[in-house]
Amino acid sequence: MGRSPCCEKEHTNKGAWTKEEDQRLIAYIRVNGEGCWRSLPKAAGLLRCGKSCRLRWMNYLRPDLKRGNFTDDEDELIIRLHSLLGNKWSLIAGQLPGRTDNEIKNYWNTHIKRKLLSRGMDPHTHRPLTPVDGAAASRPAHIAVPARAAPPTRRDEHGGAAVPRPEPRPVSGPAGCRHADLAPGLPLPP
DNA sequence: AATCTCAGCAACCGCGGGAAC
DNA sequence: CGTTCCCGCGGTTGCTGAGAT
């Protein structure tokens, strides 16, 4: 019943991606487009599970990714969307072209949380932390406000897995797979 | 100069929804 | 109609490098 036999998890690599793996994945998707992640690794000659390939492509290799510091506008938009949607990172990412849910999630946890706390706002409820005045006064002691200048350190190397960003290039749609792309966008409230 | 601490980020894990048999 | 499987999402982990001591 059901479908054909499923993904064998043995004989798959884990951890950081190598340049060669990246290039194989890019090359395959350039030709065949996104989608059918389960069969992709085998077809592309990768010893990875489809899930891992999808993640790598979506979060790092996609040509339309921005890969840079978030602007103040983006910050504010993320904060606003988070107050409306909660931790629906994929929905929030849908409103920020070139940004991924994983990137936004990481950015939220490392930067925006602190930003809100320094304003005296609860990052979860988006309400003032306590009735008492002053942001710093109400900040929990264990939560540090930007301890460092937080320079825009974008480690393009991670375990030697980084690869030069591929030049932007339209990718053909899912080749025969059922799922559609993420909905184009949510109507933003006034 | 060496060591320690912590921020930042890529990648993994587990689960739920929904489509394919 | 029930079962199986794929896809995508959110949460978490672990590694790396920069700053502090």
UniProtKB/TrEMBL annotation:
Subcellular location field: Nucleus
Annotated spans, Disordered: 145-190
Main location: nucleus
CDD domains per record: SANT
InterPro entries assigned to the protein according to its UniProt record, in alphabetical order: Homeodomain-like_sf (IPR009057), Myb_dom (IPR017930), Myb_TF_plants (IPR015495), SANT/Myb (IPR001005)
GO cellular component term of the entry, any: nucleus
Record's keyword terms, sorted: DNA-binding, Nucleus, Repeat, Repressor, Transcription, Transcription regulation
Pfam families linked to this entry: Myb_DNA-binding
Domain Myb-like: 9-61, 62-112
Name of the featured protein: Uncharacterized protein
